[in-house]
């Protein structure tokens, strides 16, 4: 007995649907044409051979010249089961091959990549120096090294005699340049610059005033006052070939003037200088000799004979004793200004004095420790 055979019930051989089936919205792909598949395979083989020949020719050309554009090689895929797209791939490959057979394929970088490459490998502009190529960190390190170099030279100048310092500069003039580069950098941290103060004061002096700047550095006084019809004689350990005359300011300056050795008081003779300026220049261990030379070259007139001294305030062990020492060389104190936190300014007047023996001058030199050398904390 058949399964589910129920008396009185009958099941037709095949179910009959009373409604029409809904048409499918999917687009059916046409059946693959075997002829097209075969043509695709043949054309692909031709394309591959032509691409290989083009690559070989490009390689030979690349060995002859270095300006050939870089080639873009793409791996060709073998025909897949999706044969219906083979015709489109072959047509595209044929058009691409027609172009590649006439010129070497190249890859055009995007504008962003080109811009970055130009920024990274751009050549330095005209007039640029090595400092312009440094990064911020490298510039900071260079400044620290320059500062350390300046401090080392500065301490050496303060702790040695003027003859030793002069010899050091002769053997290596670069030391002088490095020192003044560091000095100019240090000036920016000062509340005031004594040299600028003296430029302002001396600008009001009569024309043709003769000024001797002892330890002039880069001769800022001369550069500012000579255009105002003043005569500025600038002396330092190294000449700049223009304003600065090479001389040991604690030795014998190349200027006229004499000092008498008689026991009677004298003002000397043959003087030509109205004002002597020592702005932060009493540096060597024999600095009192610089003031001795200032006395020798100064005029004793009522409107002349001025000695202006500016020194670092922290160098003084005893300001009163310093004034006494300067007085023993032949000067009278006129004014003192210690209102500045960094510097103390003095103004002296040349007066007559008795001649001194070499022993007496030697005793004055031993008192040079009244001014301490500038020292820096070790970092």
TrEMBL record:
GO cellular component, one term: nucleolus
One BP annotation, GO: ribosomal large subunit biogenesis
Subcellular location as annotated: Nucleus, Nucleolus
UniProt keyword annotation of rRNA processing present: yes
Polar residues bias spans: 51-71, 93-103
UniProt-annotated stretches for the region Disordered: 1-131
Domain of life: Eukaryota
Function field: S-adenosyl-L-methionine-dependent methyltransferase that specifically methylates the N(1) position of adenine in helix 25.1 in 25S rRNA. Required both for ribosomal 40S and 60S subunits biogenesis. Required for efficient pre-rRNA cleavage at site A2.
Name under which the protein is recorded: Ribosomal RNA-processing protein 8
């Amino acid at each position: 007995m058949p399964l589910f055979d129920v008396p009185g019930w009958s099941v037709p051989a095949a179910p009959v649907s009373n409604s029409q089936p809904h048409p499918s919205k999917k687009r059916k792909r046409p059946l693959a044409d075997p002829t097209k598949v075969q043509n695709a395979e043949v054309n692909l083989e031709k394309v591959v051979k032509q691409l290989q020949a083009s690559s070989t020719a490009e390689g030979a050309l690349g060995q002859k010249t270095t300006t050939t554009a870089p080639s873009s090689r793409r791996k060709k895929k073998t025909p897949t089961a999706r044969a219906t797209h083979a015709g489109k791939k072959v047509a595209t490959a044929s058009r691409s091959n027609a172009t590649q057979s006439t010129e070497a394929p190249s890859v055009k970088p995007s504008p962003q990549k080109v811009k970055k490459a130009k920024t990274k490998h751009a050549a330095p502009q005209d007039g640029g120096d090595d400092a312009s190529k440094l990064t911020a960190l490298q510039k900071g390190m260079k400044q620290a090294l320059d500062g350390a170099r300046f401090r080392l030279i500065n301490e050496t100048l303060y702790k040695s005699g003027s003859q030793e310092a002069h010899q050091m500069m002769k053997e290596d003039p670069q030391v002088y340049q490095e020192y003044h580069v560091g000095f100019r950098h240090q000036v920016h941290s000062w509340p005031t610059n004594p040299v600028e103060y003296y430029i302002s004061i001396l600008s009001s002096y009569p024309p043709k005033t003769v000024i001797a700047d002892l330890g002039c550095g880069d001769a800022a006084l001369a550069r500012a006052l000579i255009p105002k019809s003043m005569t500025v004689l600038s002396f330092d350990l190294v000449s700049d070939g223009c304003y600065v005359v090479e001389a040991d300011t604690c030795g014998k300056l190349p200027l006229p003037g004499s000092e008498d050795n008689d026991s009677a008081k004298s003002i000397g003779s043959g003087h030509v200088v109205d004002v002597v300026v020592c702005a932060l220049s009493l540096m060597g261990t024999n600095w009192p000799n610089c003031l001795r030379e200032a006395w020798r070259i100064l005029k004793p007139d009522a409107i002349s004979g001025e000695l202006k001294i500016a020194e670092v305030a922290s160098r003084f062990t005893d300001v009163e004793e310093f004034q006494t020492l300067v007085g023993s060389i032949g000067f009278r104190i006129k004014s003192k200004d210690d209102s500045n936190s960094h510097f103390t300014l003095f103004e002296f007047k040349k007066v007559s004095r008795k001649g001194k023996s070499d022993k007496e001058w030697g005793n004055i030199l031993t008192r040079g420790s009244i001014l301490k050398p500038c020292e820096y904390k070790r970092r």
